[in-house]
Fold each of these.
Amino acid sequence: MADPRNDHILARDLAVEAGKVLLAIRADFPQDGDPKALRDAGDRGSHDFLMDALAQARPDDAVLSEEGADNPVRLRSERVWIVDPLDGTREFSERPRDDWAVHVALWERGELVAGAVALPARDQVFSTDAVPAIPEATGGPIRLAVSRSRPPAWLPGLVEALDAELVPMGSAGVKAVSVLDGSTDAYVHAGGQYEWDSAAPVVVAAAAGLFTSRVDGSKLLYNQPNVSLPDLIVCRPELAEQVLAAVATLEF
């Protein structure tokens, strides 16, 4: 088995290098080019890089990627890399927006064990290789990370229940790590995601000491036959009880 420390380093390095691939694709793409073509080029370029790099670095491990065909061999594997080559494709195509990410996570024998979330356009990476400290609480209203373009219908109820302030942004990864960098206090999502949307943010957030769960408080499970994982909570640990109580009053 690969040394666990090296898995942390590999996850970080892969996320950073895939981010460089994406920045180059973005820089070389014509300014008047079709945004969909840019999104497709980003998805494909980052996916191809990650698949090639993992095949070289961890040839015996399985991979679950948003942009690849789901190989059922992963369900018989002890180690599975769960990757989102480009989280926030819309934001990636809306230059010069920087709220998009690369997710790389490792699942091993039932648990997420390593991962990284890179924010290439911000030159940032959050990883289990060097777990960041949770910033001090602000003492003000709870700040909720929310979708800039697709706020859910249940959001006003959560805002009222928590007396919260909204902080709009793109990309699930960016929203999750906003709790880590102190930009927000909580991220609540319900309405459709997949394992690759949350695996890397969750393993990094949990390693830092943040609370992570499904919206009903149950554990987030990965490398499942059905890769749909539609809801998520990431929040400061001292807010977990309050956030779960507020979420329990909502109808999704």
Amino acid sequence: MHVLVVGAGIAGLTAALRADALGHDVELLVKGHLGDGCTVRAQGGIAGEYGPGDSPALHALDTMHAGNGHGDPVAIAALVDGAAAAIDALVDAGVRFDRAADGSIARGLEAAHSLPRIAHAGGDATGKAISDALIARLRSSTVQVSEGVFAADLLVEEGRVCGIRTLDGTEHRADAVVLATGGAGRLFPHTTNPPETTGDGIAMALRAGAAVADLEFMQFHPTVLAVGAPFLISEAVRGAGAVLRDADGRRFMLVEHPDAELAPRDVVARAVARRADEQGSPVLLDATSLGAADLARRFPTIDAELRRRGIEWAQTPVPITPAAHYLMGGVVTDIDGRTSLPGLWAVGETARSGVHGANRLASNSLLEGVVFGARVADALASSAFVSLELLGSGPKCSNLRDMNAEGGFSRDALQRVMWEQVGLRRTDAGLASAVATLDSWRAPQPRTPQPRTPQPRTPAEQEDANLLIVAHAMASAALARTDSLGAHFRVAAPVPALIGAP
């Protein structure tokens, strides 16, 4: 069958390569260039390298715990049961994971993991090592790759997805479309995501009427450099022994959670933001106890970037702040990537597979991309489409030209609304205001005829339209969830106890 994969991060590359190996005719569309996106930026590693006393069952428990019990046990089981094969597949693809003295893959520790089980490459360059290896494998495959192609909308005929329409109006027909376009970090002004992460796949799915869920759960990474351009400082640094200190030098996380700096990300991020607001000064990440030699050896990418910026982190604590990092929600899928629309599949951050719940466990995202990317490819030949028990069908979103550009809309304005009202800490009034503002920006212009199909636009206009659609869906989902859960924190709403927490 002819398979169209949209997106070339770890999930899209895995799906394309696996489908190609299974004999499908595969076409891969890349918005920018191979090697762009979030995968190449991933520092910490990939979870699932189990050592003595560890197991998939324990990894599953940690995943459910971090997700505040909101994860899907079936999806989590698929994730952890596929971990060993996924890491083996990456090794076979040429990924050179860092090794311990005995030759085994070295295992790192990150927040909310009960044991060290994170495989890493090049110290803190795991994503780049994986991306480079998979792209090299791609170049020797028969996958047809088209770079610089912006997928704008899904083609739907008689209720079935049959391809995509690109920004220039070209139609790419396919028997199956796999969305692997990543997340939507650019909804927020402060993010670890690259410029191209504008929710394109989720917006396409929404416009086509596919079911989405859990969009209210946006993870904010707690340790992003607070000076200059945003730069992620991996959670693995805290796993190696770095601590968080307030402006007075106190380790405040000791009183915030039993796991202190290695508490789930949502807990750490809110604590960092709260302490910074209280003191009017950024929180500091103190890695000085690790020493210059170990920091340079274990975290060469971070070390080089901080030195380039004139920061000697072996001598001085580093100012950090939370920033939007990872979207746990997305297009609803089963464990094989099927969506509510026949012919449409989704994988990676674009999908809501159910593994992350309300808060992603560190280093599970790369694992999800490999495990579920392969599962999508393996299931493509299935003639029967599973009837998903979904949370209703997604809303049919209005035409792209419904965006009211004269009503105050701009990307900067949207990002301000999302950061201030749909960010780390949310209120009833703020969420209601955000939805109302986003509604006004989506209102059609009076007396403006609507084209029958979306017309070609500039990439920036298309991205803005996609961000607006996803922003409205996220704010609406956050307003509808009146309790606090994981990364969705509503001020004055009760917070449920963490699964397994004392």
Amino acid sequence: MTSAATPAAAADPGRIVLLTTSHRVAPGLLSWPAWELLRAADRVYARDGHPLLPYLKEAGVTAAGPAPGATGLMEECAGGRTAVVLAGADGESRLTAELATLAGSGRHTMPALELLPGAYDLPGARLLDLVEVMDRIRAECPWSSTRTHRDLAKHGLEEMYELVEAIEDGDRTELREELGDVLLQVVFHARIAAEDEEEPFDIDDVAGGLVAKLIHRHPHIFGDERAETPEEVRALWLRTKAEEKRRASVTEGVPLGQPALALAAKLAGRARTADLPVEPPVSAGPADFGARLLALAAEAEAAGVDPETALRATARAYRDAIRATETATTD
């Protein structure tokens, strides 16, 4: 014969635990505390079609279907029982609102209310959301669905320039936004590339290739090479890259479409690194300006100064001086 519950046990309002999961993590990958709770709970509620249901069944945990309203849950927990509610996509907002209303009325002895994250997003998990959103936009947006790589090329340049400006301004809010805009270009181009009939590739191929490249070019981290200073790392990087590319000329791989000053410095740097005694061309007349600029770019590169950045900084200061003069003139 079962003994009657003690008054203290009967008065125990129990507890309600809202178990949350992440749609970015495989449903069965719950934390150990979450599995312990599910196996020990007096009642587990989950909506029909909840992605955890198959895994609960495998673990011997029976789900009782959708959670009742707040009042029903309170009755279920009476006597010290534990009810677990597996949160849906909306986080069970209706249920939590009902429980808050009951608690605020002051007329009820409420069960203990707990929130237990059953799965946490891994770093970079929001990138999965980005890929999913980009897939839908590409499929449904009249403008985005017709874009080509060539259509987007100019936007890539614009976004990079805006990123550089945010860095030079020291504006971290803008920096965060501009990094997102540059990332959008990568994801957009990869989505377009996935549709190519002859040579398709997607964002996973892009990321996979980048991972392989980074590992290969950092043998001092992932291999047996040694590099303990920035200079040693750069030398190792250049050697590894040269072996990887097997280029016939040090000028291969230098994009000619970049700004002229940056192009001049890049070519001068390649020649200097390869120890090639190539002097900038000498000319006369209007072309002489180009030769002088090239010489200055080579001089700056050899001194460890990025001439493009240096000129831009001076140009910005010049702009400020012009504005100051304009203000003084109008006052």
Amino acid sequence: MRLRSVPLGVVALSLLVIIVALMASARSFAAPSAIPAWLEAHVGNGDGQISQVVLERARALYLKKVAQGAVRNPCYFAMDATRPGDLGNGVLGRRYYVVCEASQSFRAISSGHGGGRNLKGTVDFSNGRRCAKNFGNAMDSELTAGGAYMTREAKTSFKGFYRTGAKQDVAFQRTFIQFDGEGEVANARQRVIGGHAAQVLRTMCMRKTPNSSYADHDGFVPFGKLVDYAGGRSNGCTSWSPADAAQLISMVKDNPTTLYIYPESRDIAAVASGRSASGTYWNASCLKEIGKPKFWPRKMLEPVIAQYKKDHPAPPAQPLPICKEP
């Protein structure tokens, strides 16, 4: 049986058609799904809105983890740390986002940013209450680092007792959600970065309460004043108001999801250099206030912090004083 010869031009044309079809298929597979109209309505740079680049990256991270089978949670999180945390007159900026596409739910809430540190006489990488200028991923830097995270296990710790307005002593237990990061934020667990309520006990002392299940071997329990710092800064963690924290923690406990924090170091470098990079932005009011943002990489900052600790050793830990009974 003789095979019919096919003109070379026909073969080339057929191959071209196949290649174009494969390329189109690859593009459609790789391209992220379009943002639904209801969610697009929340996109913008005003308070309570989410900026386009932040949503696109947060959504791409979530869809990737869902496709990998790493996430089954119907909701995901995002944070825009370039926005102001304090709008003045007791109003907090809403820059942390909870997106649940299945139920078409979008919420914008407040969140703290890393306060950084001022190593006096050495280097100052501290942040103000309103806007963050300094970012980084170094140990003990207390800075926010942008990038891709996953929520992980929840750990609840007893911090001590505090007194309510009704003169009742209440045990303060705070839940911490550990984050795991990728790339530049892969050391999130090492840095103990996670999310929790913006509450802490201050002015601590020890009170004799021998019948308490929390009492030490001498019958004392720690006691302090409960302080809400939702309008302040954190040690690099994501901190929420107590009410928001309770809701968010319940959403991700035993059901992990993704959190994308903007900006990454590449965004900071682009803005600081004045380049108009595609997909990069900064909140206009904060940029005017801080001038140029700065990213402090761990390889550069960690040796500086270590040397400062060596040169300025912390004083020996002192036992808490005994409370003066009211």
